[in-house]
Every structure is written in C-alpha cells, then in structure tokens.
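agent> Task received from the user: take the single chain below, predict its 3D structure, and emit structure tokens. No templates, no multimer pairing.
agent> Plan: (1) validate residues, (2) run structure prediction, (3) serialize to tokens, (4) report one or two observations.
agent> Step 1 OK, no nonstandard residues flagged.
tool_call: predict_structure(input=
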Amino acid sequence: MIKRIKYNFNKIKLISNSIKYKSIFLLCIFCTLISSFNIPKDLSFENAIMYNISAGLYQILLFLTLFLNSVFAIRAINKDYSSFLRFKSKKEYLISLFQSITIINLITYIIYSLLGLMFVIVKYYGNINFIQFDYYSIPFCIFNLYLYLKYYIVLNLLIIISILIYKNIGKALGSLIGIVLFIVKENYTYNIDPIQSFENIHLFYGYYLYPFEYSSFTLDLCAFFLQCIILLLIYEFIKYLNIKYTKISIED
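)
tool_result: status=success, residues=252
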C-alpha cells in the first residue's frame, strides 16, 4: 500500500511538472473567466456560485479541461516505460492509471473551482452576503460545497469511463463518447418537479450535474449515492470487458 501511494505520488509530481499541465492551468483561467461573464446580475452571491458551477458553459469547459488533463496524464505516465515492469497484470495497470488520473483531476478541479470562485467574488465585491438555503434549511455555503463535491465525482466517473474506452478501444471513439455524453446531458428534457420520494429518483446522470430540488437533503444524498453506484458498475463492466477481451497497449 505504501509503495503504491509513493508510486502514485511520483506520477502526480511527474504530470504536474510537465509543460502540458501548465497549459491546462492557463486553460482553467480562460474558461472560468469566460463562464463568469454569463452570471445574471440579479442573483445573490451564493446563488451566483450555484448558478455558475451548474451552468452548461461552465461544465462543458470544465469537462473538456479535465478530459484533456486525463489524456495528458496518460501520455506523461506512459513515457516512463520502466515503471510498467512493476505491474503484474493489465488490471493492476488500469487501477494505478485511473488512481493517478483521479488525483490529478481532483487537483485540477480544485484549481478550476477556486479560480471560478475568485471571479465570482471579484464580480460581487462589496455585495457578498451569506444566506440560508431554502430547500433544506442549511447554510447555502454548505450546499454549494456539496455541489462542488457531487459535480466532481460525477464528472470524474464520466471521464474515466470515456478514458477507459479511449485508452483500450480507440482514441477517436473514446473522445467521441465523451463529447456525446455532454451533448446528451445538455439536450436532455428534464423533469423539474421536486423529487418527493425514493421512487421518483432519476437514473440519468444529467440530473446530478444540476441542483434539482429534493424533499430532503437525505433523499438528495441517497439519489447521488445510487448514481455513483450505477456509474461505478458501468466502469467495472467496461474494465472487465477490456481486461478479458482486448489487448491493452501502453503506447502513446
């Protein structure tokens, strides 16, 4: 376990020091600045944060940034050919690869989120107020933190599924599926009625990239947990097919 943690840490250091990753940082600045221009002027500060991170433009640019980040991470990792000698199986290689991608995506997501928050703060400077969230009677800042966490987990799982296809079936197909996932999400017809019970929970992943209203925060958490299980099962199924039936190349 300690050796694996040390190995992943070294890989993260390798990726973060690459020139391409520095270009991702500049991309984060550009994308979050562009997204901040689309925030309506009549929203309160915390509503503006929720609106910004849930907006289609913000999420599309974020998804593309994390997807490119994942591709660059794979290329940086695959340049260290000697490291592949430590893997005993294709499964071990994939698990280690996706652990590294998840960590570097989390770092990039935090940077992206902080930059986005910074631009909102600059836009609302002198008019920053903290309010209660109407749906669940909790501080709005707590709900926004929950949204940040939820959006990262769902986005990262979608990216890992796309990257798994990209890495082992075809780069073009994996990239296309990633694009299609967001096109479908943006054009899906959503039921905006409040979700009152477990039977009303939606299974489509797009519902977990918007702040839909639930009858309770507990139900919201249960629905999110169920969606994570669904996406993880899809990931495990595709990973199983690729390990069993396809040759996994470590080439760029």
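agent> Step 4: summary for the user.
Strands lie at 132-133, 138-139.
agent> Done.
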